[in-house]
Design brief:
20% of the residues lie in helices and 29% in strands. The protein is of the alpha+beta class and 477 residues long. The N terminus is likely disordered.
């Protein structure tokens, strides 16, 4: 009987498979040990150690800062500086510091290091500097403890009841600000108030500053010629200039042009320059020519005692006779036209408050060389104020027996020594193309019934006092 043998144990293939499976399981186990076991715990321990070290350094820096005066305090800005040494500072939307993120990406919360909070700097305002011009004030302000707050600037004059808000600053401006308040009045004291507000705290500071006074000035020009132009100044400005001219003895009745600085603007005024009064054209005759009736006409006595600027009408104000009858008795001083000009006419002018009363010479008796003064707001020119020659070879002026006043610079520069009986466009009024007769205040020397006048040809004549001629008077401011 054949015996069979039963084979026991594993085959070679099965062995190989078993070994492979064991190797796989071993690899998984090793990886787990690395990641979750000893190696993982080692990395976590290193991370915690580094975080702890950073926290300790931060805490030490904070402690050292708190040892500085004022003892035990630290500001938010100081805290942020310390934290910034160790990473990027993280904040909430309201600016509150939360913590830091280190270069390795560690998130460290401030509350895990320091729970004392920050001590805000005392809220203070310092006015570092304040200056002014004629129409502005510039103030430089510094604050402490106002980061994240507001800064407000107010102004008022002594006459104002309340402050007016000029500027509200926030952000970086609220920490330090240089601000200019503009459009102010010259030579005026202003009170400036600054208000800083932060987290319900308020601090105020005030300062006073006076704007500069405009340094207006006039001076005689060295120009030897002047081209007449339209005057751009208002009559109030011209009055200011006239007062300055009256107070400058270097400007005389022979000055052709003056340099003017008014409200920080340079300009010139010269004889022949024209302006408008109630739709009528007037021109400058001269500077510091006519003596003021009242020495304090400008408020105070001036250096010259003269009216700064004298004008004449280029247009006719009206047509009128010197007297209702043919007489020159009493001369200009007793004439009906003088009375009308210094009352009705003067009171009708829009610039009457700018006009100064001045002394004018006149001849009371037509054939006598003696003269008298009159005080006038509005006056007629004399022969001698226009021409420098007269009927008897130059001793007199025009057809008058004596010289009343002296030749205005306008006529000195335009007529020169042109004879009183020579035709010229210079003396034609109201214009050269359609000129008419106009009155002068001088009586004709050779008869008791006439006053001098300028004809349509620009020549001096003597005409009956009752005739109606153009009236183109002068005035001074």
């Amino acid at each position: 009987m054949k015996r069979t043998h039963k084979q026991n144990g594993i085959t070679l293939v099965a062995l190989v498979i078993t070994i492979v499976i064991l190797l796989i399981l071993a690899g998984i186990s090793i990886q787990a040990i690395i990641n979750q076991g000893l190696f993982g715990r080692a990395n976590e321990a290193k991370r915690e150690s580094e975080i702890a070290s950073i926290k300790e350094k931060i805490a030490l820096d904070i402690y050292e800062k708190q040892l500085e005066p004022p003892l035990g305090s630290i500001t938010e800005e100081q805290l942020e500086t310390i934290l910034g040494k160790y990473g990027t500072v993280n904040k909430r939307e309201d600016g509150t510091i939360v913590g830091i993120t280190t270069e390795k990406g560690y998130e460290i919360l401030l509350k895990d290091i320091y729970e004392g909070g920050t001590t805000e700097e005392p809220l203070e305002i310092t006015v570092e500097n304040i200056t002014s011009t004629t129409n502005s004030i510039t103030i430089k302000i510094a604050t402490s403890g106002n980061k994240g707050g507001t800064l407000e600037i107010y102004k008022k004059t002594e006459a104002d009841g309340e402050y007016t808000l000029e500027k509200t600053a926030t952000g970086e401006e609220a920490i330090g600000l240089e601000y200019t308040i503009e459009n102010l009045e010259q030579d005026t004291k202003y009170s400036i108030k600054i208000v800083a507000t932060k987290n319900g705290q308020t601090k105020e500071a005030t300062a006073e500053q006076t704007t500069l006074k405009v340094q207006n000035s006039v001076a005689p020009s060295t120009a030897t010629t002047h081209t007449a132009k339209a005057i751009t100044y208002t009559w109030d400005e011209l009055s200011t200039i006239a007062q300055m001219i009256s107070n400058n003895s270097s400007i005389t009745n022979d000055t052709l042009e003056v340099n003017v600085k008014l409200n920080e603007v340079d300009n010139t005024l010269g004889v022949g320059d024209t302006a408008t009064v109630d739709s009528k054209t007037v021109r400058i005759l001269g500077f510091n020519h006519d003596t003021l009736t009242t020495s304090t006409a400008y408020g105070t006595v001036t250096a010259t005692g003269k009216a700064g600027i004298s004008f004449e009408y280029v247009d006719f104000l009206t047509s009128a006779s010197m007297n209702s009858s043919n007489t020159n008795s009493g001369g200009w001083g007793s004439s009906a036209l003088r009375s009308t000009l210094n009352s009705t006419t003067y009171n009708s002018l829009s610039i009457k408050n700018n006009i100064k009363q001045v002394e004018k010479e006149f001849i009371p008796t037509y054939n006598s060389a003696s003269k008298s003064p009159s005080s006038d707001y509005i006056w007629l020119l004399s022969c001698g104020e226009i021409w420098n020659n007269g009927y008897n070879g130059g001793v007199t002026r025009g057809w008058a027996i004596a010289t009343e006043g002296s030749q205005y610079k306008y006529y000195k520069s335009t007529l020169g020594s042109t004879a009183y009986n020579s035709s010229t466009n210079v003396t034609k009024k109201p214009n050269t193309s359609s000129s008419s007769y106009w009155w002068l205040r001088s009586p004709g020397y050779n008869r008791s019934s006439s006053f001098c006048s300028v004809g349509s040809d620009g020549i001096c004549y003597s005409n009956l006092a009752s005739r109606s001629y153009g009236v183109a008077p002068g005035f001074s401011i």
